[in-house]
Specification:
six-stranded antiparallel barrel, globular, alpha+beta, about 400 residues
């Protein structure tokens, strides 16, 4: 039994589980009250998918402010005398400038150079870190590596549950709750704070590029109370419950693990080469493989596409991509953008077909649609997520 589930039982709550293999976050009851229509398993927890409908949730995020239960971003806590050294062995990113109070995007690689996960790391102290992980079991993977490397670290899952406040009005909302200092909190930095005695870390992060924060609640028993405090304060800003938005994240150039990124893709293929430092002394996992890949050059690349056909449905398959009647890759994500009024997609294609302006075909089954390689991101939202800085 986890610490969070045991707390729920102490409070006398009756768990409403569809499966005892899948956990509820501290915000689960609130998502039920506010009308969440469907969930998906993510890190063995329930991740809300939709409230009103996909388009309504999308426009709420882009125009106002939304509150997301992202407790499924389970934290892996690394502490101990070797914590920093151990983290540096997990990622090809050079961490020498990683400061306390800062967040770092840290792709984790395997021995072949493939991406095992792409979490955001938070440095809470000299030798205390959280990894906010994507959908994969990283806790056990990290424990195994620590044992193999014989490092003095403790690795566990703390009682920490992220809650995201995302959208252009998030700055006003959080300033109302915490003060104007939140407006100038640097992008990818955090500060420990509280509301009415509820302890959390406020980070200027989130899986959208509409501006916003993540609140890392440090005591799960307050989940429902924290949700209601934010929803009540958000009424003047037309706050709505929301979810990580499929359409917006593609528009904004955010990649999704298991679709655009997997353990068979390496950082160079998916635009993460800037996070690989082959010159550092650390012998991180996958270093030799990445040296070889870098020397030989990649043979495929993730690109942005515009697909010239009728508006796609909100779900996509791994459609085949063709060039000159030859299969050269697959679509990894695709969607119709209501804002851009066009179909946009990510595709993993042969390097020979990855140049901007290249004409391709996408086999949608009933039709082979014309497509064009275009720059990423599809929408540049720096004015939103860097607002006030």
């Amino acid at each position: 039994m986890t610490e969070r589930s045991s707390k729920s039982k102490k409070q006398g709550k009756k768990p409403r589980l569809y499966s005892y293999r899948i956990r509820q976050s501290p915000y689960y009851d609130a998502t039920q009250r506010y009308g969440c229509k469907s969930y998906t398993p993510y890190n063995n927890m329930y991740l809300p998918l939709v409230y009103k409908d996909l388009l309504s949730d999308y426009w709420s995020l882009k125009k106002d402010v939304t509150l997301w239960d992202v407790g499924c971003e389970r934290q892996v806590e690394i502490t101990g005398p070797d914590a920093f050294k151990f983290l540096q062995h997990l990622t090809p990113r050079n961490l020498t400038k990683f400061k306390i109070g800062q967040c770092y995007y840290v792709p984790l690689t395997n021995a072949d150079g493939g991406i095992v996960n792409d979490p955001v790391a938070l440095r809470l102290d000299e030798n205390k870190f959280w990894l906010s992980v994507a959908d994969r079991e990283i806790l056990l993977w990290a424990k195994g590596l620590a044992a193999g490397l014989k490092m003095q670290v403790s690795i566990q899952e703390p009682d920490v549950s992220p809650l995201a406040v995302q959208g252009p009005k998030s700055f006003d909302l959080m300033a109302d709750l915490l003060g104007d200092w939140v407006r100038t909190l640097k992008y990818f930095w955090f500060k420990e704070t509280e509301i009415k005695g509820i302890p959390f870390i406020l980070a200027r992060t989130g899986w959208s590029k509409q501006g916003g924060y993540e609140l890392f609640l440090q005591d799960g028993q307050y989940g429902d109370q924290l949700w209601e405090i934010i929803m009540d304060a958000g009424k003047p800003y037309n706050i709505q419950p929301g979810t990580p938005c499929w359409i917006e994240r593609i528009e904004s150039g955010l990649l999704n693990y298991w679709e655009d990124v997997t353990d068979s893709t390496n950082p160079y293929e998916v635009g993460m080469g800037r996070f690989v430092d082959l010159d550092q002394d650390v012998d991180f996992v996958g270093k030799e493989a990445l040296k070889k890949i870098n020397a030989e050059g990649i043979k495929r690349k993730l690109v942005g596409l515009e697909i010239h056909t009728e508006p796609l449905t909100q779900t996509a398959e791994f459609w085949v991509v063709e060039c000159n009647h030859q299969t050269v890759g697959i679509i990894t994500s695709a969607v119709y953008s209501p804002d851009l009024k066009k179909n946009i997609a990510y595709a993993m294609v042969s390097i020979e077909c990855s140049d901007l302006g290249t004409d391709l075909k996408v086999d949608l089954g009933e039709v082979k649609a014309d497509a064009t390689v275009v720059p990423l991101p599809f929408v540049d939202n720096r004015d939103k997520y860097l607002a006030g800085l």
